[in-house]
């Protein structure tokens, strides 16, 4: 069965770095990818743009293609949004369909700090987005859990709903939302780092202007 992948982030704002890796992961896995903006992130300061504003930017960014799809469920949840809760919900909706949680290599290395992290393997596969040839430095507790789970072939994810790990070699772009916010606040216009549609409507990037 075609997997359903999940790419979460604050998307404050969504930029070409996010879209490029999500797209490549979608191609490598032959999966649809849910772009899932986080509500109140437990691990970081709150976003500058509000939930509706981040959704509006994602809607514009995701036009004219169908591999990457907006899923705003975490924005409607009150309190901090934990990935494990979202995965429990998705599992209930999707039956035995393979789910693949996409995580950057850094986020994956920090997984033991996440609520219910071991349970995540019972709910989904994990796709670790890595630079070509990148070596992952993993803490021992994660290595023990991870070692028996690695597979090389995306086809191995299609026959099981959850529990495997795959490194997805993608093209990371040197684009950061923090830097984009700084540039906009300084009166600059970071074209070619953001989907061009975000410049068509002056309201979309207004939250970052001073
Ligand atoms: P900030 O600068 O606000 O921290 P961010 O883009 O790093 O922004 P998120 O919007 O939460 O943060 O990112 C969502 C996911 O996208 C994270 O897993 C992050 O590692 C990944 N990501 C961010 N920028 C890039 C990039 N340029 N290339 C590949 N992946 C990226």
Secondary structure layout plus pairing:
Layout: E1 4-9, H1 16-29, E2 32-37, H2 51-61, E3 68-70, H3 83-94, E4 99-104, H4 105-109, H5 117-123, E5 125-130, H6 140-146, E6 150-151, H7 155-158, E7 165-169, H8 177-185
Parallel strand pairs: 1-2, 1-4, 2-3, 4-5, 5-7, 6-7
Helix pairs in contact: 3-5
The protein binds adenosine-5'-triphosphate.
Word description of this protein:
The mean pLDDT is 95. It contains eight helices and seven strands. The longest helix has 14 residues, at 16-29. Strand 6 (150-151), helix 7 and strand 7 (165-169) form a beta-alpha-beta unit. A seven-stranded parallel sheet has the order 3-2-1-4-5-7-6. The protein has a single domain, classed as HUPs (Rossmann fold, 3-Layer(aba) Sandwich). The protein is globular, with a radius of gyration of 17 Å. Helix content is 33%, strand content 16%. It is of the alpha/beta class and 210 residues long. The structure holds adenosine-5'-triphosphate. Residues 9-12, 17-18, 21, 104, 107, 172-173, 175-178 line the site of adenosine-5'-triphosphate.
CATH class: Alpha Beta
Largest sheet: 7 strands, parallel
What percent of residues are in strands?
Answer: 15-25%
Strand order within the widest beta sheet: 3-2-1-4-5-7-6
